[in-house]
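Weekly structure sync, notes
Attendees: PL (lead), two postdocs, one rotation student
Agenda item 3: pending single-chain targets
PL asked that the sequence for the first pending target be pasted directly into the notes so everyone works from the same version. It is reproduced below exactly as submitted, 177 residues in total.
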Amino acid sequence: MRKTLLTSMALAAAVLLSAEASAQAPAPAPAAVPDQMPFDVPYGAPIGIDKAISVVNAVVAEAKKSPRNWKLAIAVTDPNGELIYFYKMDSTQNASVNIAINKARTAARFRRESAVFAGAMAQPTGAFVPTLDPTLTASPGGIPLIEGGRIVGAVGCSGATGPQDLVACKAGADTIK
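Predicted structure, written out during the meeting:
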């Protein structure tokens, strides 16, 4: 009994001392503030339906390359993140519909790939990311569509793994120059 009591007291003292030591640690240096604004790509006129269809066709072709059999929901939005065109491949899981739309919306509205937010949320300082927009989707597979240096929309893919969604969406995004 006495040995257990001494062990408990020693453990409590160690915890108190370590808490005191960490409280005295210097604060981390503030992050450097860049002079230029990141992701500063101007918005352009919205993508037209014909180009949106060609983006989706390229995504579908990438998803069906042999031996692939990726089943995707594919969304194309305008620069505001509003849906222009949507296509759901046969046997795509139902949950992927809104995820694809939200990936495209995230990429358009925030002017960056949706995967950037997954990386930010993996850091302790990224805990605020979900509060930015209730439709924000932090997962690979949302890419802005840039034509002539301006964002004309975005494409979002969902239904496969994140890296597969990204590869398929990139094939679609590459059709816009």
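Discussion points:
- Helices lie at 2-23, 49-64, 96-110, 115-121, 162-173.
- The first strand starts at residue 73 and ends at 77.
Action: rotation student to compare against the earlier draft before next sync.
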